[in-house]
Amino acid sequence: xxxxxxxxxxxxxxxxxxxGSGYSPDEGEGxxxxxxxxxxxxxxxxxxxxxxxxxxxxxxxxxxCYQVGRPSSYDSGLHxxxxxxxxxxxxxxx
Length: 94
Description:
Elements: E1 33-38, E2 40-42, E3 47-49, E4 67-68, E5 72-74, E6 77-83, H1 89-92
Antiparallel strand pairs: 1-6, 2-3, 4-6, 5-6
């Protein structure tokens, strides 16, 4: 299992800041933050491989504050957008 994550924090009672560029993954290229050409090292061969799209699952514990787009495959390899505008403390807690 491999995990990628982002963290945004604020002082108690303060608004949570934007993550990435502050734009939603839906904004896409030119606006949303992204990772591209994501590879992992396959332990038995020590070679770089692109993760299989069907085996990638995303989870966002605070989707009203931050989001992650569905990974996809491009010429530059595995690619996904992420980010969000942040939110107030009352929005963060569900």
